[in-house]
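Field reference: sequence -> structure
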Amino acid sequence: MDLSSLTLDQKIGQLFICGFHSLVPDDQIKKLISEFHVGGVVYFRRNIESVEQLAALSHSLQQIPRSTPDIPLFISIDQEGGMVSRLDHDGVSRIQGNMALGAANNLELTEGAAVLAAKEMLKLGINLNFAPCVDVNNNPMNPVIGVRSFGEDPVRVAEHGAAAIRGYQSQGVSATAKHFPGHGDTAVDSHLGLAVVPHDKERLNQIELLPFRKAIEEGVDVMMTAHVIFPAFEPEEIPATLSRRVLHDLLREEMGYEGLIITDCLEMHAISEHYGIANGAVRAIQAGADIVLVSHTLEGQVQAIQAVRDAVAQGILTEEQIDESVRRVLELKAKRLADVDSTSDYIPVGNVLTPVEESEALLREIAEHSVTLVSNSGNVPLQRNKPVLVVWPELRHRTEVDEPSLHSYSLKDALEPYMDNIALSIIGTHPEEAEIQAVLDQSSGYEQIVVVTYTSEGQIPEGQRRLVEALESEDGSRLVVVSTRNPYDIQGFPNIGTYLCLYENRVFSLEALAKVLTGELKPKGILPVSLNSEYPVGHGLL
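Structure field:
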């Protein structure tokens, strides 16, 4: 991996990680690797059908003919756990997300979850994870971070972030602390627009920057930028991704970070709609980014690479600056990817990455320590000898921050080992009046009703809120409300008597919830975020 032997085009290619749209190497990614020398790829759900297919894909990508055969590819993914899991397929351990880990509040569990995830990613040929998210989620209206954060206490976020970084990197997977210098206190999704964090430097140092300083102390390999404006650090109205004052002056010089800086995807509207992908790539590298992430379109990817090459020719970027970033890339690849052999024969993985007996105890422990009983008016535990109606919200549409689960499993399924008479009413996450009325009609005669809520963006959808209010007003109803993503759902019905937080709606968490609801298990979780003055960080009826 000798920098001096590379051409300018080869060096520029090493500064790009790109996505593509198929289950096998298609013309898009072959062209990017062979002709444009890109140094890495990023996976999304669109690239994954099964664990065996994905392992074969990773192997095939490393074998694509290229001018730099001795430089392996970064193969990256956003595998944060919980509700942000590109890998949600049979054979993959369904590891909890950050806010569930924050509610469990056990650093050994957080590190153990990252170790398990890293071992499985390596079996799939993945060597770079865009996790952990160390944003401090102190804005209940945040539409894009939420349960991706460990919580709102910067010290706890820093500790859990460091534990996750240790776990990933102890197994040889590069970890990424994101989104620098902090996306937690925003009310705009940077996939869709520009967000601003208006606080002064003192506040930002005490809260937003604290987890990133801890990540640097832990030796995190990669730092991902936020497409967010920080006036305290950058007087011009430009996002951190494009700000030399943020990436070089603050992160490199003041905070002493020596690892790789990668941008969040430049096709997100905060960049693409305001600056353009090609211009954004040049400005990001000018600002101090080492790697540019362009996840989707071949046209945008090629334009960005060509724009960087033109910028060097025009003197806008210097080859010395390119060399500095390439040196960091090659050093990390030498450190983490030394064992990657692109000429080796593919050895298929089994269809189960980790035997259940090796992972189940850890995942159950995390789940059972994360269920948080916020308030209880005597409706928990449920009376097992009486029927119960479960209202279950079904996620039906993919968004930039939400992907429907590949598995069908509801709270009814989890309750069945403990109760005989369970009815299920399925609604959408944005129920219309007809759906609401159908639930109200079905609920007639039920004393015990468990409403599961699900919110992925900001406030609870109005239809779910109206349904809870209507059921709450029914005479004789023993109503239990459980949020299965956003703990702030209670702000839509602040007087609810019995409320629990689950932080995700996947199997182990639902099974732990069923045990709590039926008295088989005492709740052990504490709130990672403040819901209101009555329910602060650390609250939980244990």
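Note: Residues 85 and 336 are 23 Å apart (CA to CA).
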